[in-house]
Amino acid sequence: MDVNAIIYCGIDSGHASMVEKNTALNVKRAVNYADENWINPDSQGPYHIMKSQEIKTTWHPIGN
User: Fold this and answer.
1) Are 1 and 25 in contact (CB under 8 A)?
2) How confident is the model at residue 64 (pLDDT cuts 50, 70, 90)?
3) Can you say whether residue 11 is alpha, beta or left, with left for phi > 0 and alpha for psi between -120 and 50 degrees?
4) Reported pTM
């Protein structure tokens, strides 16, 4: 299985360090949202997922 990112939202610092340590073996990105206040309106939105995405630009030639 190919896993590119993992997001941890727990509050246990021991688990967070274990996740970061183990993701260093085979995962490209580890994101820790332990301090995030999910009740806050600024925290509710689709933008948190951007840290776990890989965005590439593809250029296509245009004909005359």
Assistant:
1) no
2) low
3) alpha
4) 0.64
